[in-house]
Design goal:
It is a single chain. The chain has about 280 residues and is an alpha/beta fold. Helix 2 (about 20-30) packs antiparallel against helix 3 (about 35-50) and helix 5 (about 80-95) crosses helix 6 (about 110-120). The chain folds into two domains: about 5-50, no CATH class; about 70-275, Rossmann fold (3-Layer(aba) Sandwich), CATH 3.40.50.150. The N and C termini lie far apart (about 65 Å). The protein has helices at about 5-15, 20-30, 35-50, 55-60, 80-95, 110-120, 135-150, 185-190, 200-205, 215-225, 245-250; strands at about 60-65, 65-70, 100-105, 130-135, 155-160, 175-180, 230-235, 255-260, 270-275. The strands form two sheets. It has a seven-stranded mixed β-sheet, sandwiched between helices. It is built from eleven helices and nine strands. It is about 40% helix and about 20% strand. Bound molecules: S-adenosylmethionine. S-adenosylmethionine binds near residues 106, 132 and 216. S-adenosylmethionine binds next to helix 6, strand 4 and helix 9.
Amino acid sequence: MADAKPALQRELVARGLAAREARWLVDEFYLGADPDALVGLEGAVTRRLAGEPLQYVIGHWPFRGLDLEVDPRVLIPRPETEELVTHALGELAALDVTTPLIVDLGCGSGAIGLALLDELTKRGVRASVVALDVSTDALAVAKRNALKHGLHQISFVQSSWFDDLDPSLRGRVDLVVANPPYVGAREFASLDEVLRYEPYGAIVADDVDGVEGFADVARVIRESGPWLAEHAAVVVEHGEGHGVAARQLAESAGFVHVRDEKDLAGKDRVVVARR
Ligand SMILES: C[S@@+](CC[C@H](N)C(=O)[O-])C[C@H]1O[C@@H](n2cnc3c(N)ncnc32)[C@H](O)[C@@H]1O
């Protein structure tokens, strides 16, 4: 029998899907010509045509070397956060510790912590990660992703930033990484409605010190110091307009070698600093 997929894809394009997405959904959900097997595909197409992000409809998405499960309980991992992982790996390499302890704050799907663990393990580095999130829903997804990829050197803690981190870790952490919420409520109201499918608490943060959406980035930078070992690093993604405030805050909090890394569009997006 002729392959039915091209005809199905053409039909989905005629219904309004982009060709790439039509191919993706057919590959993912078309299980055969049986009418029952088409039910799953039709459900997925309906969700996508209603505006739900492709990543949630498919239910998984690549992040660096990992295929992560994603659903509306977690932020969809972004390409700029893949860049953050590169900077974090660079900081760890410069630190040259054999068994680094990493804290991933606001872990969401587990993207940052799991990618670091995966790539460090492949380099023969015996890292361990403590992944925190205030959301138990997000932690459930992150745990599934750890199991899916057989990454066991990771523990999960429900905590608002450092509040419930084991106090015995003070002064022992080699790397703090975070991609906190950093969009102000006013800016959020003006952004693409597709963002409303993602958890509001993963995206929007309070204003602080007159800087919109900066409260969580500021908290992470301010509170990291006491947890870090000597010379250890903090690597924090922030909003496009936060570069100056983030660097000033890191300097006034006593960090050294403070710098900002740019994203692919040339905008300051990741503050990096050392204790
Ligand atoms: C921008 S998302 C980042 C998720 C993931 N790290 C990534 O990069 O894809 C921010 C995460 O911070 C979490 N979060 C928000 N407020 C928090 C808080 N007070 N303490 C800890 N985590 C928080 C959210 O639940 C969300 O998972």
